Amino acid sequence: MRFGSHVSIRNGYFAAAKYMDSIGGNAFQYFPKNPRSLTVKEFNRQDAKLCHEFCVENNLVSIAHTPYPTSLTPSIEKKL
């Protein structure tokens, strides 16, 4: 079983992973961009790589949360 929470990536992905590890969680979820926008945010590839390596070494799972405007369900038109 995995336990964790949403965490801020304000200080980077690696900092978020280290924070979750420091509080005893083994999973964390984050918004890779503003959750109310579809605009892509720039990120530091080296920071993402360090986060990945830290997660592998410490058995952490990171999960990117989709922005709110995204819908994975198809539109269904009702026929009258």
What would you say this structure looks like, in words?
The chain is an alpha/beta fold and 80 residues long. Helix content is 30%, strand content 14%. It is built from 2 helices and 3 strands, in the order βαβαβ. A 3-stranded parallel β-sheet has the order 1-2-3, with helices on one face. Helix 1 packs parallel to helix 2 (45-58). The protein is globular and about 35 Å long. The N and C termini lie far apart (47 Å). 15% of the residues are buried. The model has no long low-confidence stretch (mean pLDDT 84).
**Beta-strand level of the residues, as a percent range?**
5-15%
Average of pLDDT: 84
- Main β-sheet: number of strands, strand sense, barrel status? 3 strands, parallel
Structural class comes to alpha/beta
Order of helices and strands: EHEHE
Number of helices: 2
Topology record:
Elements: E1 4-6, H1 13-22, E2 27-30, H2 45-58, E3 61-64
Parallel strand pairs: 1-2, 2-3
Helix pairs in contact: 1-2
Summarize the structure.
The protein has 80 residues and is of the alpha/beta class.
